[in-house]
Amino acid sequence: MFDPSATLQLIVSGLAMGSIYALVALGFILIYNAVGVVNFAQGDFVMFPSYIAVSFVLPSVIVFGTVVHWQLPLIATYLLVLILMAAFGLLFNRIAYYPLRDRGWLPVVISTIGVSIFLRNLAQLIWGSQPIVFPSLFGDASLSAGNLHFRPQDLLILGVAGILIVFQYGLFEWTSLGKQMRATAQDRATAQLLGIRVDRIVAITFIYSVLLGAIAGLLVSPIFTVTKEMGGLISLKAFAASIVGGFGSIPGAIIGGLLIGVVENLGGFYISTAYKDAIAFVILIAVLLIRPSGLFGERVSEKA
Amino acid sequence: MPATRKKFLLASAAASAAGLAFPNVVLGKGEPIRLGLLPPITGAQALLGQQEQEGAKFAVDEINARPGKVFDDRPFELVIEDATSDNQSAVGALNKLLGENVDAVVCPVLSTQIQAMAPVMKGRQEPWMTGGTAVKNTQLGLTNIFRCRASDGITAQAMTGFAVEQLHGKKIAIFHSSEAFGTGGADQVEASLAKFGLKAVAREQYPNGTKDFTAEILRIKQAGADVVVGYIQNPSDVAVILSQYNSLGMKTPLVGSPSVGNQTAIDTAGKNSNGMYCAQDFILGFNSNVATKFVTGFYNRYHHVPDVSTGSGWVYDAIRLLADTYKKIGSIDKTKTALALHQTKHWEGVLGDFTCDAEGNMIHAMSIGRIENGKVSLVKKVVVAA
After folding, report:
1. Domain boundaries along the sequence of chain A
2. Which candidate in B54, B179, B236, B303 is best for mutational testing of the A interface (most A CBs within 10 A)?
3. Cβ contact (<8 Å) for A273 and B46?
4. Helix (H) or strand (E) holding B381
């Protein structure tokens, strides 16, 4: 039975989750376009900065079994996290990718899996196994109008994700750096011939991808609680989203993420919650059957 | 070389002399009793693993510090293997543990892992101590498994009875995690509801680690439920569920499984857990002297309140019960130990009175508590005959 108020709430929360899937999917796509590999640590780039952030947001946190009091103002914490994660993105590029760049795609993929396992275990070692609550800017308040109830954090996620998507469009379309990133993604050899410092651009792409994950983490932490597994399911759905959108397509990753977020919510409500998670993958299979290159992917024809 | 009468007599004399000179070695006096522990140290359930290890180390240190240790000056020695959070790894960890000559095993708390490990456990004599609450765990054809917590049958009966009789629920919805624990618990709730002539108006499930429960909660709302019975496995999921429950304007009372009253869950959920009900093996301030002593000692050692029922308490009880049983029979013979554990009657543990039934269930009571300002207070106690 159609329920308009429930449908509206499901769409808003679906779009919010979908925005997170989209940000993580963009991280997948940017690294894939730059170096031709899937980064399996992308979900952990959501988790790790969230842990760093709570260490500075809360009055006291247990770090390596010792209570520390590092509290900083929220904005200072966000800036610190972004700076640290940018440095981490560069380190990730130099350690996990750069030494293996000429050995084909498989060693790099294995290397990203290694980084994922390392980050999860490092998080457990530093912060322990207890889930940690990230305080919301809005406290426990919810926005209500009649039968409609929304979390303010969902609306914040939608707003920030929207701004980021516009920023990214501007970056790629109107800046020299963005054009160099696009050129490197399209054809590394030609970009190098044109004088683009490809390794530097790839390193910047890694940093940008890590930052996208970090922003996603900072946005969802207040509604998720911070645990070392928090990025797992997100990255799985984001990966599905990037394939639905057409692997390699930036608009595809965004639309794919939003589509999965909304459809799994509506499907869970109108069909069955037992199949809610399966719905993302049913969409994936359906899209691949009808349009194997994804919704926005380029058709690739093979010559005989 | 053929054995001769002379050689046999010489060997016997040497053995007797060794016995006189080193009686402790021959009788096993002072020799450690190897106790296997299979907590999920890594993976999604690492929190439970941390709590289990804390409970185990606390119990072992306490027993080893007492005069005579377990018995005959024999201390416990913990042998720990990581069961992680999946079934395949748990089976691998168990096989490794069994290769290390352990005398008894404290199994994982996750029912799904116990059920996966059962084929390896079958035919072996080690006493298996567990806190896994799925009813099926003690119906796997193992005669030497002992459950140190109330089963889901008792929990579901207590939760459903409370929802119907105390909260006057007529339209009850079930909300549960989709793995063995949550599904088994939800089945038990349905069976208990049937005894009241009721059928759940909604049964919604989610996989562990889900972050958006809007669809599940709105379906329960749409079904017009007047009470929600929640069978939730992960304490870390509880905070997310309760936060969304409140933010979606749900005023329907929720009666949750023990993880809802888990101290970590309460601390994480904060104000969102106020007014919720939960089934509890243990409620702080309402149990025995053993419990008070445990909670005080634990806090002094670890500087945080223990998660008694789901985490450290049942492990502490399991190890103390084993120690008392070994002491009573003066042996660590596996068959004799299992037999003696089956004869347990009114042994006082942190989680209450331990009396073993034919299946190996030790606890036959469950309390319902109400959460308010970070604490659980007793509302009702349900005792089922052993």
Report:
1. 4-130+148-290
2. B236
3. no
4. strand B375-383
- Distance between CA atoms of B226 and A27, rounded to whole angstroms? 44
Closest CA to A12 of A157, A123, A133: A157
Residues 95-114 of B with CB under 8 A from A: none
DSSP per residue over B240-267, as a string?
Answer: HHHHHHHHTT--S-EEE-GGGG-HHHHH
**Would you say A20 and A161 are in contact if contact means Cβ atoms under 8 Å apart?**
yes
Instruction: Tell me which chain A residues have a C-beta less than 8 angstroms from the C-beta of B219.
Output: 268-269, 273
A8 touches chain B (CB under 8 A): no
Hunting for tokens 């609306």 — which residue is that?
A155
DSSP structure string for B53-82:
HHHHHHHHHHHHHSTTBTBTTBPEEEEE--
Strands lying side by side in the sheet with B128-130: B76-80, B33-37, B104-106, B128-130, B145-147
- B129 in Cβ contact with B354 (< 8 Å): no
Contact B249 A142 (CB under 8 A): yes
Alpha-carbon distance B3 to B284, whole Å?
A: 66
Quote the Cα angle for B226-B232-B233, to 5°: 170
Cα(B162)–Cα(B165) distance, integer angstroms:
5
Dihedral angle of Cα B240, A218, A23, B214, to the nearest 10 degrees? 20
- Give dist(CA A257, CA B86) in Å, integer: 29
| CB distance B282 to B313 below 8 Å | yes
Query: What's the CATH class of domain A4-130+148-290?
Result: mainly alpha
Alpha carbons A17 and B233: distance in angstroms, whole number: 23
**pLDDT by residue, tens only, chain B of 386 residues:** 444 556 655 555 554 554 444 444 444 678 999 999 999 998 888 888 998 999 999 999 999 999 999 999 999 999 999 999 889 999 999 999 999 999 999 999 888 899 999 999 998 999 999 999 989 999 999 999 999 999 999 999 999 999 999 999 999 999 999 988 899 899 999 999 999 999 999 999 998 888 889 999 999 999 999 999 999 988 888 989 998 999 898 999 999 998 898 888 898 888 899 999 999 887 876 667 888 899 899 999 988 888 777 789 999 999 999 999 999 999 999 999 999 999 999 999 998 899 999 999 999 989 899 999 988 999 988 877 65
User: B62: how many CB neighbours lie within 10 A of its CB?
Assistant: 18
Inter-chain touch B50–A128, beta carbons under 8 Å = yes
- Inform me whether the C-beta atom of residue B154 falls under 8 Å from chain A C-beta atoms: no
Partner A contacted by B124 (CB < 8 A): no
8 Å CB contact of A268 and B215: yes
Across the interface, of A6, A140, A150, the residue whose CB is closest to B272 is A140
B13: number of Cβ within 10 Å:
10
A144 touches chain B (CB under 8 A): yes
Contact present, A234 and A43 (Cβ < 8 Å)? yes
* Interchain proximity B235–A131, CB inside 8 Å: yes
Q: Are B222 and A229 within 8 A, CB to CB?
A: no
Cβ of A149 under 8 Å from any chain B Cβ? Answer: yes
Q: Within an 8 Å CB–CB cutoff, is residue A13 touching chain B?
A: yes
Q: Which two tokens stand for residue B237?
A: 């999921």
Output the CA–CA distances (angstroms, integers) from residue A146 to A6, A140, A231, A270, B259, in the order listed.
12, 18, 34, 22, 33
* A-B Cβ pairs (cutoff 8 Å, strict): 106
